[in-house]
Amino acid sequence: MKAGSNKSRRPSEPRASKKRKSDAGTAILGEEDENDKVHVVKKTAKKRAKGKLSGLVDLPIDVLFEIFGQLKPFDLLKVARVTKELRRLLMHRSSRSVWQTALESVPDLPPCPPDMDEPAWVNLAFDPHCHVRF
Prior knowledge:
alpha+beta, 31% helix, elongated
């Protein structure tokens, strides 16, 4: 131990483990023993398993738009929040027709205000959370 250190430690106790991140998804764990030697142990991170619907984003856009056109507006909003790829696809201007088709399937729904886009209107109309700020 260094002189002037406020921490007291018995010489027979090993020091606490120190973790640091390294590249390539591995964590390096270093432990110091009673002789202040560091033993390095690498643990690799587990890769996430792909889900059953992982191939959905690989379908042609026309097929996806046909599927998404059958959904209710709030379900379409939930799908847009699943992955970055689906969000990028459904929030693009080219998918406006999908949102309009979904909105037309709801009877007695007021039309989308001119200053809002369809996803924002769906969020305001169907999301159960309060959107008012005081």
